[in-house]
Structure formats: structure tokens, C-alpha cells
Amino acid sequence: MQTPTHIVTGVIIQKAFEGKNRALSLTVIAVVAFLSHGFLDKLAQITYHPANPDFHSVFWVSYHLTLLATTIVFLCIWWRRYKWGIIFANLPDVDWIFIHGQEIFHFKIPFYRQPHLHHLLGYIYEKIPPFSWVTYYLDRLPNERHNPWACLWEVLIVAFLILVIRLMTMWKRPAPRAAAARK
Length: 183
Ligand SMILES: [Zn+2]
Known about the structure:
Elements: H1 3-17, H2 22-43, H3 58-90, H4 94-105, H5 116-127, H6 131-138, H7 151-172, H8 176-182
Bound molecules: zinc ion.
């Protein structure tokens, strides 16, 4: 999926797993957020997600500029408070920074010619239950990677995840009466 989707997922995971034991909750947040990336990247096949950039397509360019702007806005809102969830939910995409970075700037890192983190996630989601069970269903979803209209799925998923964040925030905030009674 696209970066904004991974960001909101990271926020939800950090909200869900934050606890008193900082080391333990950070470990759980890191693992769950990292794994969430594999799930979302499999789900990405129902969304508009061509493998290669297409700078000649007006739609591709404007869609990706919108994604970039959304990423910046989301980071402004959530980075300070939820950076750990955000970092680990997006960490595997460091693969593309290394791989495309080498192509664009013409240098070579011999051990980073492959998307290692995505391969690791691929291995987990193909081979290890219960993840492989989920993959069984995800692989049956229609492939809409080249259909521009399928970007609406991404928008819908992000809208749904933002709703989840709002519900979690409302749920965690004590009701005004309970807060007053505690004073
Ligand atoms: Zn990815």
C-alpha cells in the first residue's frame, strides 16, 4: 500500500499496544507494525499500484503528488506522538529507497540489490501460519494494480483507518463526568 496507509496503520498499532512497560510495548509495536506492512502490501493488489513509476501519465503523477502531500500532513499530525508505530509500519519500504537510490544516483551496494525486508515479509506471509492462512484469501482478491479507479480503495481504507483512530481516541479519553469525579 501507499505511505499514508502505512502511517495511519502505525498510529493505530502504537495506540493499541502502548503500555506501562515501555520496552515490552515498544517491542510488540515494532513487530506488529512491521508485520502489518506485509499484510497491507498483499492487500495492495486491489488498489491502483503499478510496479513501475509512469512519469508520462498525468494521473500517476498527480496521484503520487497527492500521496506525498498527504504523507507530509499525516507526519505533521502524528509523528511526534506515534513515531515508533509509524517508523516500523513503514520500515520495509527502506528497501525501495536503497534500490531506487542506487538506480537514480548510479552507485552500487552489492548486498542491497534486492528488497530484503519485503522478501522476509513475503517468506512470513507465504510460509508461516497463521500468516500463510491470511495469504490464501488475500491472493484470491482481484488484481487492480493498473486500474486508476482502484485508488478509491486506498482512499476508502485510509478513511476507515482514520475513523478507527478517532474511535480509539474517544474510547481512551475519560468521559467528562468520570474525569470530574476523579479530581
Ligand atoms: Zn512495501
